[in-house]
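Late entry, written up from scratch paper. The run itself happened at the end of the previous shift, but nothing got recorded in the book at the time, so transcribing now.
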Amino acid sequence: MPLKENPAAPPLHEPAATPRKPRLLRRALVAHDAEDHAHNLSQWEQSYSQFSPGRFEGRLTELWLPGMQIFQESANQALRQSCAAWPDALWFGLPAPGAAASRLDAQPIEDDTLLFRQGGREFELSTPEHYGIYGIVVGKALLDEHFPYADALRLPDHGGALRVPPELFQAILGTLRQALFPADPRPAATPGQILDLRETVLDQLGAALAHGTPPPRDAHHSRIRHSHQVVGQACELVLAQPDQRLSIADLCRQMHVSRRTLQYCFQAVAGMSPLTYLRILKLNQVRRRLRSADDPAGRVTRIATTWGFEHLGQFSRDYRRLFGELPSSTLRHPAG
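Output as recorded:
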């Protein structure tokens, strides 16, 4: 049933602060910057980079139950998302139906797939434009309480994915939609209704884990995994050495791979060349610096050149094409 949050509920803080007397802690937020959107999700460690051109808009609705967080987030632009749910918990993700292809740690996500990852462990989502996903995070204590034989859930430490029967997948989505987006105003939910909602979500997750099947193993699984590692290593090198002006040849030399291998890995994982991908990644770093509250004296030229953009006219055009505004405008409107 649709539930409405208690209007007297305190602001969201941390899982341990969820009140002993069950009540809903709910909020809905809109962001106009990818990194702001990443930080809006409570208790997650996240960083998002925008990869498609245009002004950004992201929406998040989240709801806290005792020991459990559920949410839905969407964004109008393609994103590279680095994510980690809160420790001592398990994240389950359900991509909204009808979205274009996305990837979890470079592996394609099929329809009706339940994703899961251990809290406190980083994973990467690559999502297309106009993408939405539902999430459920369950504390380990609640999992152990609800599933006394948690070892039987077949959840490897590194995470995974399960194809769920379509009707069950839709049933879980229906429960989450009703909780997050009540159709009609209702009085504040009673403690009994809140615990009933939590029980329903746990029961549906248990059914999905019992009846879900691992997706067919891609014949190129190992190659994609290796490509993802190569791309990740290249990104780490570039981000760690902004002042080194690393060329593709420099990356190949430091990583001990050929130019052809590097090109193949980026095409396989991101669908674009290393030069294009890394340039977009660095533009996002410039944007973070321009919006940084602890760098109020920063100037566009200094920050841009720090990240290797020496041709400032081309940099300004590329920046405006990607983010829909000039870098000087970003500097005048730092993150709140």
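DSSP finds eleven helices and twelve strands in the chain.
(Scratch paper discarded after transcription.)
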